Amino acid sequence: MNRYRMQFAPAVWKPKLNPLVVRLFRPFRLRHQQNSQRLMQLQVTGKEPVQQLLKQGCGVMVMPNHSSHADPFTIYAAADEVGTPLHIMATWHVFHDKSWVTRWLLRNHGCFSVDREANDIGAFRQAIEILEKRPEPLVIFPEGEIYHCNDRVTPFREGASAIAIAAARRADRPIYCVPCAITYSYLSDPTPDLIQAMGDLEEAILWKRQHDRPLPERIYRFAEALLAVKELEYFRQTKQGSLPVRIRELGQHILQSVETKHEIKMADQGLPERVKAARRTILEKTEACRENPDTTLLSSLSDDLDELFLVVQTFSYPGDYVIELPSIERLAETIDKFEEDILRRPTASIRGERAAVVQFGEPVAIPKDRKQKNLATEITRQVESEVQRLLASRL
Q: 3-state DSSP call for residue 119?
């Protein structure tokens, strides 16, 4: 996974969506999509209901899975097919350290920043205002992170559904959430590049290149070796059991240690929510510490943030993804993650020309009923299930 700066957002970037800029820059987006992401083909299905909702003047939130760094290009290319520009909520890291030209382009394409580590009321209100009043759809990726799992949904967070519910209660028009599944496939065979990359990874941990073994076996053995190293670090021994179980146990152990240290009690929540709460607590302590610098405490807090990043890293590896279906896409995605995590590359390599399929699912109407309990949970579950169904239909 990408390592990114863990701190509260240093600035806020609001959208300045300009449909004229979106139209004029479409050829440049297409060229960049092909050159940087090697996305040569796009297929969009289920767009008619979305077009109908927009024609009726409804507020529309599109909720896609988020398996690749190419997703923003893909969703905007799909929007071109639908015939609309977009608003997109993106982490503030997308804007930070970018040139003013890049920031201008992002904002004029409807992108705006959110601080995922804080309770970003400004971004929340911005999203509600878009759903309440704007004619263009709002795109939010509910997984929050890029997990490189093309065929599987990682649990959706409830924040997107909460925004839709808040907008529905205020708006004078209907609000809908639209499930969206994005999948990628290779048009050219990347196997030689994958074998080369796997050898580089093996040498990085002082192994010989395992030329005599099939690539799926090499990936699985490599993952077991990495896990054993971390188990020795945290448990002082390697564990028994299947890879998925051992991965979950390691992540839970590290997270519980951080939560205990900072007296955080969220064991009834999902892992992403627990990590977010722990990060927020640690970042708040870090900000307070900087007023009266304590280098020892700051170092300890920084170590805790690194621990939480490791928790998210372990969470991104299902453990049975390759064994269940050793497709070329799953092999490539797993090696992509190894590259980012072990070789510390900023983004994974693109190993061949690819095609993308964007499938819009059945829109979910958001009720205005203020009394309905657990509505955000139910909407999130419904949309997540539909996205997973659409992904599975491609297998």
A: coil
How far, in Å, are 166, 367, 376 from residue 371 at the CA level?
13, 10, 12
Alpha-helical (H) ranges within the chain are 19-24, 26-36, 47-55, 71-82, 100-108, 121-133, 159-170, 191-204, 215-235, 243-261, 271-291, 295-315, 321-324, 328-342, 375-392
What single string gives the DSSP state of each residue in 355-388?
A: EEEEEE---EEPP--SS-TTHHHHHHHHHHHHHH
Q: What confidence score (pLDDT) does residue 5 get?
A: 65
Q: Enter the tokens of residue 357.
A: 């399929």
Apex CA 273: angle with CA 268 and CA 276, to 5°? 135
Beta strands 364-365 and 175-186 are antiparallel
Both tokens of 394, joined, read: 């491609």
pTM confidence score: 0.92
SS3 of residue 139 by DSSP: strand
Cβ partners under 8 Å of residue 258, min gap 6? 264, 278, 282, 304, 307, 308, 311
Which backbone phi and psi does 136 adopt, to 5 degrees? -90, 155
Which among 262, 343, 270 has a CA at the least distance from the CA of 304?
262
Distance separating alpha carbons of residues 57 and 136, to the nearest angstrom: 9
Q: Strand, helix or coil at 56?
A: coil
- What crossing angle do the helices spanning 121-133 and 159-170 adopt, rounded to 10°? 50
Angstrom CA distances, 220 to 156, 319, 343, stand at 27, 8, 17
Structure tokens at 295: 């280098």
Run of H or E residues at 61: strand 59-64
pLDDT-based confidence at residue 119 (cuts at 50, 70, 90): confident
The rounded distance, in Å, linking the Cα atoms of 27 and 15 is 21
User: Exposed, middle or buried: residue 160 (CB in 10 Å: 0-12, 13-18, 19+)?
Assistant: buried
